Amino acid sequence: MVDMTDLADVHIPTVLIVGAGLGGLMLGAVLKSANISYHILERAAEPRPLEFSIAISANILPVFEQLGIYEELKSVSLPLLTVSLFDKNLVHLGDFGGPYHKIVTGYDIQMLARPKLYDILHRKVPSYKISRGKKVLRTKEHDDRVTVYCSDGTEYDCSILVGADGAYSAVRQSMYKKLDEEGNLPLIDKEDLTIGYITMVGVSTPLNPEKYPQLSETDRSYFHVVVGDKNDSHYFVTVPDNQICWGIKIQLPEHEAKQQQFKNFEWGPESVDIMLKEYENFPCAFGGTMEDLFDTTPKHLISKVFLEETVFQTWYHGRSVLIGDACHKLLPGGGEGAAMAMRDAVVLANCLYNMSDKSDKSIKGAFANYYRQRYLDAEDKAKSSAISTRIMSGHLVTEEGFYRHI
């Protein structure tokens, strides 16, 4: 058994983080900066971040400055000024955003390939702080610690357990099982996630700027959304190194979405051949067809996943707490999912830093403070992300039922 409590000063909580995604890595980086002992368990044997674009804005960029990685982030990203919307014939319908974001906030929105962001954060966490191939089976709360049991037979003790392990969080499932047995789990937290969309994403290899002139403009990122004619939409984003991040999103009919209520390996590779074939002749907003982008994207880096949404009501219990998709899963239209996970990490780290000791009372107070600061923001971002996602799928706000599920 690995007993981590010996690694920390008596007045500093020892934190075990389950999940080495963006939220888990950010939490590790901030805890390191705060001199709080931590360790990360990751299910995957090798890093495999989602191959798509990600927007980082003023709501988290100051943290990158404080961690000393803001300039590195800017070196692998491009400022995003607007998101342009087109119909299937590439007729321009309008723009989102504008060039005034930096004037208002002091920061550009930085657009980059998600693996680049992952690499930056990963380098802030020493390799010995991450144990890979650790599939968590269950957790057990004790009076003064939490024990985590992994599928390889290893066990980990910690003072505080953080579930940063996604929408199907093993930490949350153990927490909810205990609460349910006690009769203390709210009914809303027993509901399945709402599945409304299927998406396929990838990042091309470096392309020729002569074929895609937008790549020649190295002072801004182009983000084009093309709306199809059957509740599908297509995304094209320019990022550094002459690469294009692309995505296809299909909205499922309500009856079909209900049939998709099963456990899936989110962001994991699945068979994509049928979907690739179906959309290979669809026009690319930057020129040519989707097939041109498919052919320049390594097949093993294309992911087909379900997009789900929910905001759980219960985020903590005992010495366990949740961040990111483990407690709020958002649709991608607002571009908020990763930023929300990283903001959760920063707020939680601040609350832990302010603890006077590792007593149950101090931990409960820290968790409650974290929840008060983050829950309403999660609800708000879930609603705005749902609205943005529907608009980018071609819906009009005047449509009947537009706000029914928001």
Automatic annotation (TrEMBL):
Residues 14-180, 303-353 form the FAD-binding domain. GO terms for molecular function: FAD binding; monooxygenase activity. Keywords: FAD, Flavoprotein, Membrane, Oxidoreductase, Transmembrane, Transmembrane helix. The keyword Secreted does not apply. InterPro entries: FAD-bd (IPR002938), FAD/NAD-bd_sf (IPR036188), FAD_mOase_fung (IPR050562). It holds the Pfam family FAD_binding_3. It comes from the Eukaryota. Gene3D superfamilies: FAD/NAD(P)-binding domain (3.50.50.60). SUPFAM superfamilies: FAD/NAD(P)-binding domain. The chain crosses the membrane at residues 12-31. PANTHER family: FAD-BINDING DOMAIN-CONTAINING PROTEIN-RELATED (PTHR47356:SF2), FAD-DEPENDENT MONOOXYGENASE ASQG-RELATED (PTHR47356). Belongs to the paxM FAD-dependent monooxygenase family. This is FAD-binding domain-containing protein. It comes from Entomortierella chlamydospora.
